């Protein structure tokens, strides 16, 4: 995700920090590097020029002492990049009453998959959610939404016979009253033409949405500004969800265009899995871009991968400082649901550049299957107190034979157990609902080291 831009900005910051003097030649070289990276990321030229002018002004401001100038310059880079990414705005749903969220967008934007991800997002937060399929023009839209609903245990309202979106919604209106969050999938077109505007305005009057959200793909580039402006003018959108942030290096165009049109980005999606959606926070996004991690996004992913019961169960274990071998397996399964370690390493401070081979990532499912067989081959005492196995080769051999695996597979499970046990011990007293602080994560990183953290993940 915009990896090249992140590297260029980080390199520029390092040059500033390591410079003895900030002469004109060095400053201009740094500005050119940043300009090139921003333009390649599809950020509009006017915004690039504004950022460049402010950097020059700071660098050559004679009122700022030379020793402080470097700090001011780095601070200016951060402030300006955050500014062009826009302000953070959270998609809120009322505690009481009903939220009706209507999703708009052109063909190929990814509305239908996004509506399922959004439905799962609110369901994991304890909301009673309904998805309504009103895309009556694309033949596969209704079937796609139905399949996504069945696969992810989401309530879906679709009429396969009706070809009028307004009539479809009226048909289900009474049934929808018992739901807290209604997510409406609308039709798309190749362009924002008069027919599409008319249909969506009619639906808007009937649905009376609390939020009208534009779904836009990251690879739309600089045409994002025109698209966001047109939808904003015609239909008064309240926010944007940007899809396919994992598939393009040019997502900067869509992100900055939304900020310019004052249409806040609520979410970004970065993959095909149901949990590949996250709230957009400009500060956190920039932090990740610079390889500094994003703990808030990591914790959000954990919440999406586990339901409330699992979270409460793990919270209790954290408070008691106790875990089981089954928890080890659940931890690895949750990691797979989040997209594997390769997907989330950029969220962990200091881990963005870690190289994890594809073979290691692909072996996770096989590992879980082996571990499940191993646990079944254990006695009740061994499952509850794995410590009794640690130094007893005869027990390890017996368990391995019963599970049809190697002794090393049993030892691998025990090592993972030890690591998770240490993690739980160090996290004892933490409240998962409030998250792990930067200080706690740094402490864990220092204790375990990067290699151990990779194994833990």
Overview of the structural elements:
By secondary structure, the chain is an alpha/beta fold. The protein folds into three domains: 83 residues, Four Helix Bundle (Hemerythrin (Met), subunit A) (Up-down Bundle), CATH 1.20.120; 192 residues, Rossmann fold; 159 residues, Signal recognition particle, SRP54 subunit, M-domain (434 Repressor (Amino-terminal Domain)), CATH 1.10.260. It contains 21 helices and eight strands. An eight-stranded mixed sheet has the order 3-2-4-1-5-6-7-8, with helices on both faces. Helix 6 links the parallel strand 2 and strand 3. Helix 3 runs antiparallel to helix 4. The radius of gyration is 25 Å and the shape is flat. The two termini are 21 Å apart.
> Which percent band covers the strand fraction?
5-15%
CATH homologous superfamily placement of the largest domain: P-loop containing nucleotide triphosphate hydrolases
From the 3D structure, determine the CATH topology of the largest domain.
Rossmann fold
Enumerate the spans where pLDDT stays under 50 for 5 or more consecutive residues.
Answer: 431-438, 447-457
- Main sheet: which strands, in order across? 3-2-4-1-5-6-7-8
Shape: flat
Number of strands: 8
Order of helices and strands: HHHHEHEHEHEHEHEHEEHHHHHHHHHHH
CATH class of the largest domain: Alpha Beta
The whole-number mean of residue pLDDT values reads 79
SS-based class: alpha/beta
- Intertermini distance: 21 Å
Major β-sheet annotation? 8 strands, mixed
The helix tally amounts to 21
CATH architecture of the largest domain: 3-Layer(aba) Sandwich
Q: Portion of residues in helices?
A: 55-70%
Q: How large is the radius of gyration? A: 25 Å
Number of structural units classed as domains: 3
């Amino acid at each position: 995700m915009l990896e090249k831009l992140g590297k260029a900005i980080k390199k520029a910051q390092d040059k500033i920090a390591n410079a003895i003097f900030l002469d004109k030649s060095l400053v201009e070289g740094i500005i050119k590097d940043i300009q090139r990276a921003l333009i390649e990321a599809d950020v509009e030229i006017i915004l690039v020029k504004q950022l460049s002018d402010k950097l020059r002004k700071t660098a050559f401001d004679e009122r700022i002492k030379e020793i402080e100038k470097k700090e001011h310059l780095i601070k200016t880079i951060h402030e300006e990049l955050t500014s062009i990414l826009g302000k953070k705005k959270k998609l809120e749903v009322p505690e009481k009453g009903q939220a009706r969220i209507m999703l708009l967008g052109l063909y190929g934007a990814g509305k239908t998959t996004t509506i399922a991800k959004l439905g799962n997002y609110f369901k994991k937060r304890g909301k009673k959610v309904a998805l309504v399929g009103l895309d009556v023009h694309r033949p596969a839209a209704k079937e796609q939404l139905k399949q996504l609903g069945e696969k992810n245990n989401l309530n879906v309202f679709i009429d396969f016979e009706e070809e009028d979106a307004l009539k479809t919604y009226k048909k289900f209106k009474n049934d929808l009253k018992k739901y807290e969050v209604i997510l409406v999938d609308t039709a798309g077109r190749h362009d924002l033409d008069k027919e599409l505007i008319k249909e969506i305005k009619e639906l808007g009057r009937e649905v009376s949405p609390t939020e009208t959200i534009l779904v836009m793909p990251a690879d739309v580039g600089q045409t994002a500004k025109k698209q966001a402006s047109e939808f904003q003018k015609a239909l008064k959108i309240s926010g944007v969800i940007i899809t396919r942030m994992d598939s393009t290096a040019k997502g900067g165009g869509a992100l900055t265009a939304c900020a310019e049109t004052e249409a806040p980005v609520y979410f970004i999606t970065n993959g095909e899995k149901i949990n590949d959606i996250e709230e957009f926070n400009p500060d956190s996004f920039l932090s990740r871009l610079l390889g500094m991690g994003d703990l808030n996004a990591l914790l959000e992913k954990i919440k999406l991968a586990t339901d409330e019961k699992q979270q409460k169960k793990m919270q209790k274990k954290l408070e008691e400082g106790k875990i089981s071998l089954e928890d080890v397996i659940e931890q690895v399964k949750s990691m797979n649901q989040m997209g594997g370690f390769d997907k989330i390493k950029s969220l962990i401070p200091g881990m963005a550049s870690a190289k994890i081979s594809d073979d290691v990532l692909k072996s996770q499912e096989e590992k879980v299957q082996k571990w499940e067989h191993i646990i079944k081959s254990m006695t009740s005492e061994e499952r509850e107190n794995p410590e009794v196995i640690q130094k007893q080769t005869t027990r390890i051999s017996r368990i391995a034979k019963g599970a049809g695996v190697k002794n090393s597979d049993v030892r691998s499970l025990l090592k993972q157990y030890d690591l998770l046990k240490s993690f739980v011990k160090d996290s004892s007293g933490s409240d998962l609902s409030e998250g792990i602080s930067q200080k706690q994560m740094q402490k864990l990183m220092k204790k375990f080291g990067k290699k151990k953290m990779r194994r833990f993940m």
